[in-house]
Amino acid sequence: MLDLRVIREDPERLRASQRARGESEEVVDELLAADRSRRASLSEFERLRAEQKSLGKEIPPAAGEEKQALLARAKELAAAVKAAEAAADDAQQRLDQLAAVPSNIVLDGVPVGGEEDYTVLREVGEIPALEKVRDHLELGEGLGAIDTERGAKVSGSRFYFLTGVGAQLELGLLNLAMNTAVEAGFTPMITPTLVRPEVMAGTGFLGAHADEIYRLERDDLYLVGTSEVPLAGYHADEILDLSRGPLRYAGWSACYRREAGSHGKDTRGIIRVHQFHKVEMFSYCREEDAADEHERLLGWEERMLAAVELPYRVIDVAAGDLGSSAARKFDCEAWLPSQSRWLELTSTSNCTTFQARRLNVRERTETGTRQVATLNGTLGTTRWLVAILENHQRPDGSVAVPQALRPYVGGRDVLEPV
RNA sequence: GGAGGCGUCGCCUAGUCCGGUUUAUGGCGCCCGCCUGCUAAGCGGGUUGAGGUUCACCCCUCUCGCGGGUUCAAAUCCCGCCGCCUCCGCCA
Predict the structure, then answer these.
(1) According to the model, what pLDDT value does residue A124 have?
(2) Catalytic annotation on A344?
(3) Which ipTM was obtained for this model?
(4) CB–CB of A69/A61 below 8 Å?
(5) pLDDT tens sequence across A171-217
(6) A239 CA to B16 C1', in Å?
(7) Does the domain spanning A4-99 belong to CATH 1.10.287.40?
(8) Is A386:A335 a contact under the CB 8 Å cutoff?
(9) Active-site residue A283, yes or no?
(10) CA 20 to 30 Å from A112, out of A158, A186, A349, A379?
């Protein structure tokens, strides 16, 4: 949701943003009209209501015919107030519906265009020179680390078991991510993975990407695709104290995605799956600090990528490829040797005040309260195992273990096929 | 799942039976000022949030867990829901 006052004062900003994303500009004028109509009907209701209240005060002391006359007038007025209130509620509701339509206003500097129009900010690390490349599934099966056949038997396609060193590697990676976050001052959190509709809607995931989300109809709950969702809801309807800096949380959770519309894409292995684990950074900060905080989140992501010794690049995602909540997004993509392409491992979004406005998360300032900014970023996921296995593979099908992960696999520096 | 209790402006709390001088009481905390060698105490004032209107001040409306209803009028009466607590039952 956007700040109507900003739109009222500077509608061109939203128009420009909608153009950059390739979305509708008409909604801006519709919004302005709905806002005007809401304010008009609200004023009318308030005027009548004030009259009703002052008339109501004259009734108790009155008596006889005078009282009867007052009561008759009050009764008429009550009907008018009721009608005016209904009209004002309708106008408010129309405005709320419209206000939920536009995506967040993109920040200056975000590349214009669609999925292919990203800007590469930098490439870090050496792409390994491999003679014979095995993909992560072949390597994982060799090590006794990944079992997708039995995953499919038990739960269907895009499910898997992590077994033996595979399970250890995942736990190790996520622990390393958690430890990295805690050292950086984040509060570690283990979150609910089922959330109420308001929270899911508040994070902006029920718009264009609603198909991606599992819903438990009997209980009216949604399975989260990331702990960003419960962490954004954590402070809903609260007024925060950000005077001592951002509130930073590191969420550990299972994540569920339907992967609707990705049939036939990344069907092999565990690149694109219905369920995985993730450690997610989430930050509540002042709006003016959000851009700097975004850089910091990116910095911690890159620290993790360096710790597991992966070659990667950082891209500034184009406006048309941003989620509805994001005003800017940086992805880190690791090299995927088996496909000679880049694979997204992290994604950090600056949602400015968009989510906070929907979820009603504010901070206290000298003059009152205002919406905070929220940001999120990935510190580790199951998918990272794909890049780790492939980039650290050796000709015999064994896999070297990055130093930072060795404590989690019994101190071994190499995982051998079983 | 069953029974009972509770939900008031940061925290505690009065008001709810019996609707209207309630602009929701008082205390704690916090903020401003006065007083004072300093601090504490004392004294005075302020202190929910949102919206409308306005250059601004003022003013107005909503807000007593949430949503309906009754009424000229609802914190107060009625209905539904949510949350918390206690007990019972069931179950990892």
Answers:
(1) 97
(2) yes
(3) 0.84
(4) no
(5) 999 999 999 999 999 999 999 898 888 888 888 887 767 888 998 88
(6) 30
(7) yes
(8) no
(9) no
(10) A379
User: What residues contact residue A29 under an 8 Å CB cut-off, 6+ apart?
Assistant: A11
A94 is catalytic: no
Task: Measure, in angstroms, how far nucleotide B61 C1' is from residue A113 CA.
Answer: 45
End-to-end CA distance of chain A: 53
Structure tokens at A388: 């780790």
Positions in chain A short of pLDDT 50:
none
Which bases in strand B are touched by protein, i.e. have an atom under 7 Å from a CB? Answer: 20, 49-53, 60-62, 68, 72-73
Looking at residue A72, its pLDDT comes to 83
The closest alpha carbon to A235, from A247, A227, A244, A226, belongs to A247
What token pair was written down for A418?
């079983």
For CA atoms A297, A272, A344, A380, the dihedral sign is positive
Q: Which CATH architecture does the domain made up of A115-415 adopt?
A: 2-Layer Sandwich (3.30)
CB-to-strand B contacts below 7 angstroms? A 4, 39, 42-43, 45-47, 49-50, 52-56, 59-60, 71, 74-75, 77-78, 81, 89, 239, 362, 364, 368-369
